[in-house]
Structure formats: C-alpha cells, structure tokens
Amino acid sequence: MRVVLGVTGGIAAYKATGIIRLLTEAGHDVKVIPTANALRFIGATTLEALSHNSVDPDLYTDVESVKHVELGQTADLIIVAPATASFLARMASGLADDLLMNTLLATKAPILVAPAMHTEMWQNAATVGNVATLRERGIEILEPAVGRLTGADSGAGRLPEPDEIVAAALALAAPQDLVGKHILITAGGTQEPIDPVRFLGNHSSGMQGIALATEATKRGAKVTLIAANVSEPISAIHEFVRVSTAAELEAEVSGHLNFVDAVIMAAAVADFRVENTSDKKLKRSELGEEITLRLVANPDILAGLVSTINLEGLKVLSVGFAAETASNTNDLQRLAEHKLESKGCDILVANNVSNGAVFGSDQNSVLVVTKKGSVTARDGSKTTIANHILDVLSQEI
Ligand code: C5P
To answer: Which stretches of the chain are DSSP H helices?
Structure first.
C-alpha cells in the first residue's frame, strides 16, 4: 500500500521515525512530506533513509510531474503525525499553501490525523472547533495521549505511540471484503497435561492466528478466536474463547462449525496426549531413574472438520497450516501440496520452521497453496502474512 506521511512542526516530529519504521517493515511504500517547520525538528535525510524514498517538500520543484496531484491520487492512505494546532486550523480552512496541504486536498484516500500539542492549545475553542469541522468531513482524528509534555508539565496533548497510530491508520484503509462473513480462527499451541504442573507443549506463540483474527476483524468479518495458551494481548475480537488441550479446542471448533463461513486452523495442535494423567504432582523421589509416559493420538481436528463439512454439505471454507522443516522452496511446495491433499482442506499455509525460524518472531515466510491450484509465497510481518492469507480466502469464500 502507498502511504503518505505528513509530518508537521512539533517536538513530537522525531516520533515520525517510529511510524515510518512500522509501515516499511509491514511492506508499505512510505512517502514522507514534512512541512517547513517539521524540518526544524527532524532532518530530511533521516526521513529519506528510513522511508527509502526521496523527501522534497517544496511545492515548486518537479513541477512537470504535478507532484501534489500525483501524491494525492496515488496514496492509499494518508497519515499526519504529529499534527500541530496550526495544521488543524489550516486543514479545516482548506488552505493549500504547501505540498502537504495541496496533497491533502488532492486525495480521496482515507486520512488519519494524530494531533500533538500542549493541553491548553488542544482545549482551546479554536482547536476544538477545527477538530469538529474535520471530523464532520470524515477525517479520522485520534485523541492525543495524556502524559508528560515538552516541559515539566503533564496533560492531554502527547502524540499517541507509533504502533497505535499505525494500527488506527491501517484499519481505516482495510478493504471491507469480509463484511457479513463469520470466521472461526484457532491460535496458539495446545498443552497436554502430564500432572497438575507439567505438560507436553510446543513453541507456538499464537501471534499468526491473532494477527489473522485482528486483520479479518478490520476487513469487516465477525471473528471467533479460539486461543490455546496464548500470552499475547487480544482486543476488539467479536468472540474470544481460551482453551488449553486439543480436546477442548476440538469441542469449541465443532460447537461453532454450523455457524461459520470459514475455519482457519492456525493452532499448533499436539498430535499426542498422555494416556493416564496424574491428579497429583509426580514426585521425583518416587519415580526412580526412568519413567515411561504412554501417549495416545489426539484426533486430527482439521481432517475431522473437513469430513464433517463434506458429509453434511456445509458451506464452510477450511484453511490449514503446516509447519514443515523443508530444505528449499520446492521441497516446501511439495510438502504443502501433500498436506493440502491429506487434510482435504481448501487452502493450506505452509511455513518453513527449519532453524527455529517463525516461532515467537513477528516475521513469517509462507507458501499458500489452494485446492484450485494457486501457489503464492509471502515474506513479512505476521500482519502482512495475515492479510495475504485473507486475500486468498476472500477470493474463495
Ligand atoms: O499434520 P500437521 O500437524 O502438520 O497439520 C497441521 C494442521 O492440522 C494445522 O492446521 C493444525 O491446526 C491441524 N491439526 C489438527 N489436529 C491435530 C493436529 C493438527 O487440526 N491433531
């Protein structure tokens, strides 16, 4: 996505660097337009280096490319952060006296504005009026955070954290292609108890499943997230159920199957559980030098739900995951296609977990294969990967 980032002249201008980083790391093309006063606080060189794009806020250079129109028309999203009181006044008046103001008038892209200023300025009747005018025009304006300001004082007026700004902005630009769809997503790794303190588990953090739930929600879906042992914070999901074992996860999945349009099985489900768990903690002193744990197979939940979908003729799209230790991309594709067939699901997302990659990281690299024969590869943040999987899913749902 092409994101234009306007930076205006306030002390928080340096925080634009964090916003640029988050956007470029998520795979977006970022074009920064600082105002003349923003450049008193942060250098164009810094903005260029981080955004990997040239920074030239002069309205009267490259005139032949009509750059304010080009920037406005090609932007998928515009963020202004930090936005000063003066900027809010100029935007509310429709002024077009520099490249940023011209670009804002020449766009149809969603616009998110993140103001930052002293509390008195934020609460001044002029600013309050300008904010109300802009909101009436459909501009999304974040409330400033409360906390330490430039001097020793504190109050409302701090720029919200870069991750909050980026999340709010990306939500504005999300395609609404999953409106009216109910998607069940499993995340995390099941834990199979041995005794009340010990369990058999796996390295899954649940981050990819949570990213899928978050992004599907932004794209308009009603999402039920069944999370096995995740510690990541989860917010703004329609329905959220915590489970621990494969048996609990299976019960929740089958209880929802009749009400959903798609199931995404991102959870790492333990293939085996301990046959006889102990109610009491097993004591080292009583166990001797060796113990044998007898394991029995857990049901394959994905394969089971695919056969229920087929038997009952349900219109539910099924997406499976496969963590494979492949030696190269061809090998990964072969394994992915084999798993797609053996599980019988519509879409399979394979990732290469050789050398401990993926688990707990915010980056991922996947190959997505479908029953209809499409094969696509994606590298990037788990949010980028989630959106790619949802792009594939939304073509079929
Ligand atoms: O067979 P494998 O564990 O590689 O398959 C992974 C896929 O199958 C994932 O989508 C996972 O959620 C699902 N699975 C399952 N039940 C199991 C094991 C895996 O649904 N017992």
So the answer is: 16-25, 44-51, 67-74, 85-92, 99-105, 119-123, 125-136, 162-173, 207-218, 246-256, 284-287, 301-312, 329-343, 382-396
- Compute, in degrees rounded to 10, the torsion defined by CA atoms 8, 14, 15, 20: 80
Single pTM value for the model: 0.80
Kindly give the number of the ligand 1 atom that is closest to the alpha carbon of 319.
10
Q: Could you tell me if residue 177 is inside a domain?
A: no
Q: Is 199 in the pocket of ligand 1 (CB under 6 A)?
A: no
- Last residue of some domain: 122, 143, 172? 172
Parts of the chain with a pLDDT under 70? 355-360
pLDDT in tens, 350-366: 998 876 656 667 788 89
Judge if 117 and 19 occupy the same domain: yes
Q: Is the CB of 301 under 6 A from ligand 1?
A: yes
Gap from CA of 122 to ligand 1 centroid (Å)? 52
- What is the pLDDT at residue 233? 81
Instruction: Name the residue at shortest CA distance from atom 4 of ligand 1.
Output: 322
- Indicate if 328 belongs to the active site: no
Q: What pLDDT is recorded for position 236?
A: 81
pLDDT at 20: 98
Q: Whose CA is nearest to atom 1 of ligand 1?
A: 322
- Given 202, 229, 351, 352, the catalytic residue: 202
**What is the domain-level CATH number for residue 30?**
3.40.50.1950
Ligand 1 within 6 A of 269 CB?
Answer: yes
pLDDT score for 356 = 65
* CA 179 – ligand 1 centroid, Å: 28
CA distance 188 to 212: 12
The CATH code of the domain that includes 247 is 3.40.50.10300
Q: Find the 327 Cα to ligand 1 centroid distance in Å.
A: 21
CA of 316 to the centre of ligand 1 (A): 18
Q: What is the pLDDT of residues 32-87, one digit of tens each?
A: 999 999 999 999 999 999 999 999 999 999 999 899 999 999 999 999 999 999 99
User: 68: which residues sit within 8 A by CB, 6+ positions away?
Assistant: 59, 99, 102, 103, 106
